């Protein structure tokens, strides 16, 4: 018996000593995802318009649709997504630890996040800014009127840092009331424990619609925009193949919008233009593969299942009060910022 | 003529010699565990380096970047280690006041449950059985929401202000975010005042020792507590009268804007929710411990106390509690540690304890493994300190078995 024990312990030692083969965890995430058959997507589950879960467990929203876009592009199946709901404070740790493959959770692209948080931000899907919301009945008209106010803010967000930075620069004292997520924040704001709520303007618009829709007091978003908030998907550093597969899948929706391809006309869209033919993988370009690791007809699959950028936007963000025309999220040909590199 | 070998053991090969095998097995086990930990640590360092996240504790010198709630003096540009100190202070405050509340309430309710008054006994039983079985997080959330968010208190700009009768100063301000009471602030000659108080303490201890020795020598009732407190009280009163301007009382006032309270001692709703909720929860556990330890005192003690006509209070004070508390102290130490650790749940009611601040700083880009190590170190320090101090007390009063 002792002999057996000694032998087993020796075996354990040998196994543990040669178990460390994890050099390059990130390399080959594309293959790993294809083997696994699902994409693990870090999402928000309490933000109307961007990511919400209903009581049957179905996720829907702007960011959710982009998770599905990536799933179609990489795996060919929009439902091959495992949604991992995350709070703002834990989202980057989840990405760093490999718990999720891609983070599409209304996250702002900043230098610190690209650098010391080990993430790589991809194409910006939504150009936003930070704003402040107050009850309509309040006499706050500008940021200066918020001296000494309690301001509700979410923990671990750029809003928290920007709030501190802007208010300190202008010399306005304030008191942050910090919550982990909107479920606890919203009642505190509605009951007057906070004088104002600061977040991305898109979040505030969604919350304003939700509060007024549930019969609450009228809300007003202040005209001051405190910062730039480019929101987009993020992946872990060190795996360019995976990053590019995700990015080009996402950008395909904007390219389709630019060409005028929608989910209803993708099947019959004229492909005389070489650029369109290459993009759709049609006609003589049926085998055109730029080497991104995506199928030649990945764009067709994405557009037919999910629609182009405009359709996705209209489906989720216009109903909560965020117009598309005339905003930075419009196509570059209309004066907006949506401009994707050519697919050739 | 045969020589008898003093060593009777047969010659055994080393791989069947039990002594050697024991040593080898231990060594192999130790090496295996060390190898496992080394591999885990190496894995962590490699991945952190690959992602260009720092692997040292240099992040403690980086600026915090965010404002700490209800701490107007905190500069967001101060380094992270200052933020850790603020978190430690907040956790300690909530922990200490919670422990105080839990002990007082717990001992009272534990005794009450053994009362011969049926109503008192039943009510304390209901209290204990309800609160013990609800997770502390739920109690904190309930308190935070029921008492403050959806509770009867008005918003700060319309706060209830109670005047001190006879003056125009505010004694108490109540709102759904801040409560305030008057506080003492240092005036001139404060150092002298503390010196006098210290002298009073020293003389009180001297009187205590003197009365004890007197009692031992002559049998005179020592009344040492009365003497000591009396001496200290006289010194304190004299100091207050003669050095009365050492202290000023700061009364809380609601600012014009209705958004902040100046002066006084301000308590925010997160602190009150966490402290009171955890105090009530831990009190239910301490009540059961106290009740159990009182019941563990042999019945004969109570009967003897009744036989010599001690009333209820005297029975507890002189017979039961001294014997019961020896049994109660070790489990109560555990409950204190649990309370301090449970203050980490305060993040749900926006209380800025060390866990909440660490989570926020991780969410804002500080490296997670190192921050969590610092957090664990903080809680470990609290736990070890509390149990060390209380174990000193425990060792003095515990039953010594032969």
Q: Could you explain how this protein is built, in words?
A:
The complex is a heterodimer of chains A (344) and B (402). Mean pLDDT of chain A is 88; it is low at 16-26. In chain A, α3 packs across α9 and α3 (62-75) runs antiparallel to α11 (298-306). In chain A, strands 8, 9, 10, 11, 12 and 13 form a six-stranded mixed β-sheet that branches. In chain A, strands 5-1-6 form a three-stranded parallel β-sheet. In chain A, strands 2-3-4 form a three-stranded antiparallel β-sheet. Helices cover 37% and strands 17% of the residues of chain A. Chain A folds into two domains: 31-125 and 232-344, Periplasmic binding protein-like II (D-Maltodextrin-Binding Protein, domain 2); 128-228, Periplasmic binding protein-like II (D-Maltodextrin-Binding Protein, domain 2). The N and C termini of chain A lie far apart (68 Å). By secondary structure, chain A is an alpha/beta fold. Chain A is globular, with a radius of gyration of 23 Å. Chain A has twelve helices and 14 strands. Chain B has helices spanning 18-50, 80-112, 118-132, 136-149, 190-218, 224-242, 269-296, 299-307, 312-342, 354-363, 368-397; strands at residues 160-163, 170-174, 178-181, 183-186, 247-250, 253-254, 261-262, 265-268. Chain B has eleven helices and eight strands. In chain B, the strands form three sheets. Chain B has a four-stranded antiparallel β-sheet. By secondary structure, chain B is α+β, with helices and mostly antiparallel strands. In chain B, β1 (160-163) and β2 form a beta hairpin. The two termini of chain B are 54 Å apart. At the A-B interface, α1, α4, α6, β10 and α7 of A face α1, α4 and α10 of B.
